[in-house]
Amino acid sequence: MKTVNVQVCFLGALAALTCGCQKEQNNSATSDTPVVAASMNSIPEGKRDTTGMAWIPGGTFLMGADEFPDSRPVHKVTVDGFYMDTHEVTNAEYARFVEATNYKTVAERPLNPADYPGVPADKLVPGSAVFTPTPTSVSLDNPLQWWNYVAGADWAHPEGPGSTIKGRENLPVVHVSYEDAAAYARWAGKRLPTEAEWEFAAQGGRGNHTYYWGDQLKPGNKWVANIYQGSFPDKNLNEDGYAGAAPVKSFPSNPYGLYDMDGNVWEWCQDLYRPDAYQTSAANNPKGPADSYDPDEPGATKRVQRGGSFLCSDQYCIRYKAGSRGKGEVTSGSNNLGFRCVVSAK
Prior knowledge:
Blueprint: H1 6-14, H2 38-41, E1 53-56, E2 59-63, E3 75-79, E4 82-85, H3 91-101, E5 127-131, E6 147-151, H4 178-187, H5 195-203, E7 230-231, E8 235-236, E9 266-272, E10 302-306, E11 326-329, E12 337-338, E13 342-344
Parallel strand pairs: 9-12
Antiparallel strand pairs: 1-4, 2-3, 4-13, 5-6, 7-8, 9-10, 10-11
């Protein structure tokens, strides 16, 4: 890792994944399972509660998409029934968790100088990645042009120290790492979904289509998901009504009563990421591979992210499409990354 500047250090790891994918024109050793910090272990396990969740009946479906190399082969999978949050976890819900536990997200914690040799101590400040539109159109080869590491950006300060979640209580919580999402799930008596559960729920019983809502991008000439319209990353036309994340339930639900399974914010899944995972995936209730490997960053431990975000654009990142997969380094967050939870049937 280069050590010129802490912003570069962080975004060097985030560059290929802060939208959950790489530039689609450039598709392309095992790492250790991440160590769970003591701050998560100290979280009390909550009682099972399915309030505000939808029952997903389970069944057999075709998982994956031929369009994406790491989503091949399309294969038959069976999942048991489960409950799933009808929407992404909101700022208000996460605030209740933090108030009850005094939990500190990864973006709020001091940085360990040993992880960033050569970086001046005054540069080692907590923060997270924030999307910033460019003033003019740019080449899409370098995500550092529109992603900035912002000191002080975290779930309660989405754009940095001068911002707040006041008035945004019903928006998805963002800047959450995998651990931050798993800690909330533990406290709530829930867990993060497997990738198979997530895709089965997103299909809504309708089977394989281009998008989870169907085969037309704008059914009835209406936007039905919060994605990016216009010239990425400099000019968002906001045709869907939102330049950033939208309040949950702003768009129609799927047949299972789930909102924003496409777009809005990326969602963490519990599966470790490997591009070849589907070649050896279990047929019943798969939980992902035993280890993580991404050829773009062989030393990073990554988990699967699903659903795309408000930054997904056909010009750059088309992984809001059905069957596609995102990936994220487990300690990283950004202002287009959140999660939702599930509860097993028993």
